[in-house]
Amino acid sequence: MTSWDKYAGKARGWSEQEYARADAYLSHRAELVRSLGPALRAGDVVLDLACGDGGLGDFLPEQRYVGVDASEEMVAAGRERGRELVHADLNDYEPPQPVQATTIFRAIYYARDRRKLFERIAGYTERKLVFDVNPRQYRLEEVRADLRAAGLDRLETRPFFVPQTRALPLLKLFERRPLLARLLLRYRFTLLCAASRRAGAS
Ligand SMILES: C[S@@+](CC[C@H](N)C(=O)[O-])C[C@H]1O[C@@H](n2cnc3c(N)ncnc32)[C@H](O)[C@@H]1O
Asked: Does residue 69 line the site of ligand 1, with CB under 6 A?
């Protein structure tokens, strides 16, 4: 059994069925992909590893969005919605040309070896790596150490408070309230991380 088998039956309509309000959820994620850490520019390539059906691409119209997923069914569903998708395992994939940003959402646990994956990604990513972590499952300091080992020594984080299964639009306001955010993160939700090199570092 592979880590992607269980997604085959959910591939068609993934984004719309997985999120209570896919537009609110994915547009906020896209906004943070653009703005957290070094900003993205028009024309930049965003490589989304373990992309599902590539729904995030609908909200990055100024960038070139390329998704990668190991599930054939997800790749087919993404292509049906008009996305550029590659069928590959995120642990082995290398794009033919460097990309400006790489993203991984709800899939960092599919890294066979997280530090090696970050090193591989740092090799082909020019500006930043953006991903989410559940801080109740992973220690941020350990994630930071793996990023540093890959040369990504600058890390910016932001709580992500758009719920998956319910529409609670006002909750997003708490993302910028550090004390409330820390409290909420103890019980639910994820942290978005943007890792990059310090200015001047190659
Ligand atoms: C929880 S879904 C997340 C999909 C999308 N990123 C999102 O946030 O909606 C996890 C995705 O990871 C894919 N996946 C699992 N293992 C993988 C691997 N080793 N390489 C690439 N994709 C993988 C699955 O097929 C599935 O589409």
From this structure: yes
Q: Rounded to whole angstroms, how far apart are CA atoms 152 and 49?
A: 18
CA distance 147 to 115: 7
Q: Verify whether ligand 1 is closer than 6 Å to residue 32 (CB atom).
A: no
Q: What percent of the chain has pLDDT over 70?
A: 99
The verdict on the CB of residue 58 being under 6 Å from ligand 1 is no
Domain spans of the chain, in order of start: 5-195
CA atoms in the 13 A half-sphere facing the CB of 26? 22
Are the beta carbons of 189 and 159 closer than 8 angstroms? Answer: yes
CB 55 within 8 A of CB 22: yes
Three-state secondary-structure class, residue 196: strand
DSSP E strands, the chain: 45-49, 64-69, 84-87, 99-104, 125-133, 154-160, 190-196
CATH of domain 5-195: 3.40.50.150
Using one digit for the tens of pLDDT, what is the confidence trace for 1-30?
999 999 999 999 999 999 999 999 999 999
pTM of the model: 0.96
